[in-house]
Amino acid sequence: MHIVTAKEMYEIDRITMEEYGLDGRILMENAGRAIAKQLEGLLSLNQRITILVGSGNNGGDGFVIGRTMMNAGYSVRILQLVEDNRIRGDAQYHKQLFLSFGGTLLHWNESFDLKELEEETDVWVDAMLGIGAKGALRSPFSEVCTFVNRSERLTVSVDIPSGIPADEESGYTEEAIHADITYIIEAPKLSTFLERYASYYGRWEVVRIGIPNSAWSFIKRAIWSDQSVQQTLPTRSRFSHKGSHGRGFVIGGSQSMPGSVALTSSAALRAGAGLLTIGTVPEAIPSIAAQLTEATFHAMKGQNGWIQAQELDLSPYDSVVIGMGMGRAEETASITRQVVKSAHCPLLIDADGLYHIQHHKSSLRERSHPTVLTPHPGEMAMLSNQTISSVLDHPISISKTFAMEYGVYLVLKGPFTIITTPDGEQWVNLTGNAGLAKGGSGDALAGVLLTMMMQHETIQHALSNGCYLHGKSADYMVEHQHSDRDLLATDVIHGLIQIFRTLSS
Ligand SMILES: NC(=O)C1=CN([C@@H]2O[C@H](COP(=O)(O)OP(=O)(O)OC[C@H]3O[C@@H](n4cnc5c(N)ncnc54)[C@H](O)[C@@H]3O)[C@@H](O)[C@H]2O)[C@@H](O)CC1
Ligand SMILES: Nc1ncnc2c1ncn2[C@@H]1O[C@H](COP(=O)(O)OP(=O)(O)O)[C@@H](O)[C@H]1O
Ligand SMILES: [K+]
Question: Which proteins does it associate with, and in what oligomeric form (predicted)?
């Protein structure tokens, strides 16, 4: 399923209409009908529906929904918020049909009594503004949205909750509709995945309206779905041996922070790594070894409890991860730079490793093997010289610019993790929950990703599947054994058992 900007959606509509010849009125009919079908499954016949329509095509969808629901036996009325002369084109065509079918149309005016309307309403359908919304809500949209948000009736939005943008834009107001459910037309818009706007959507579903599959070919952004996982997760051959599943090297840890390396390594093993070696300072080895009997160790030279620069033969490894628990001391800065230069295999840089490369980003471009960076928004802000709030408001565009500029795979972590390739293609992972918002979750993710990188031919598949599995495990554990408060990274690692069992059954 693709993810689009408003501009891209308009272009897809244009291609469908002009190049394929599908009439805009038919598209609008399909949109309204697809949403009406969902509403019929959701509502009982005695629930009275009030549809709020604005001047654009979103309002046009509203007129189709009105006619279709009325025909299905529901009590429907439409409140038009704009003057008659503002309803034009396809929307005007469908407004006329609604009227000729005997629909009830109310017009907004200064003295309109919303309270009275509310008394005759069980469900608000918000068809006020769609992807054409610009800036803060104007009157009367602002008043009507405020009223609907205070009303305790079920609120269903068409395509987008009115008042929020489709794209990574700010300047919108609190008054935007807080929907219970949003029926998104054809493809989620960027704002569906932005911290600032995601909650306005409520629960969301996508409805198809007949856009041809080939019209999407220029969109390089999509959701990583259950189906994507089924199509790309490698199976294990009956005749495989430990060498077939990758030999990984985890570099990190320090005298005072041995725990995160243990989490990464444990996650890598649980995710199916064939062989795993942990490179850390000698002082950290006993505590890690006590938890991980399956790993082997490479005692690295340390100074003051930190890993220092040293000769390192990375040739036996299929993938390397560096950074967790390593600390930010100058000693570890040198080893990070050295590994970036000498790892002739896929390399994942996380946590303190990201801190160390912030002033050496150009060295990433010189690597001849894939490089993966896994920042959370704070680390992304540091790497891209932005503020954290700017990263949160523009995660999709900032990721893309960075990944393309430095030729890296970027995994920007968060409630919706964004995976970007060096070519700028992007995938959004939807699994995971707030139980993961806790120290250690990222370490576990790095381990899962390390293993996936050794087992997939395509790094993007590896990263997307790794993020999916990590989040899916957290979802499973919160649903069956834990809560989103008590969940620990070790539980997430443990939950992988169930996820793999389900995927392979
Ligand atoms: N174009 C197509 O082929 C299709 C479009 N569809 C629907 O059409 C929608 C997009 O239609 P439009 O491009 O007409 O855009 P909208 O329906 O979002 O309406 C935009 C109009 O609303 C007004 N407006 C914008 N910002 C405002 C603000 N802050 N306060 C008050 N009024 C404001 C302006 O007059 C603007 O022209 C989609 O979201 C979707 O619901 C569907 O019917 C499917 C087919
Ligand atoms: N609210 C949330 N919903 C879903 N996933 C989340 C949420 N918060 C964090 N995560 C996930 O948890 C992990 C946290 O990583 P990170 O911030 O690096 O943690 P740490 O390094 O402290 O272990 C990432 O995979 C991220 O996507
Ligand atoms: K809407």
Answer: Homotetramer.
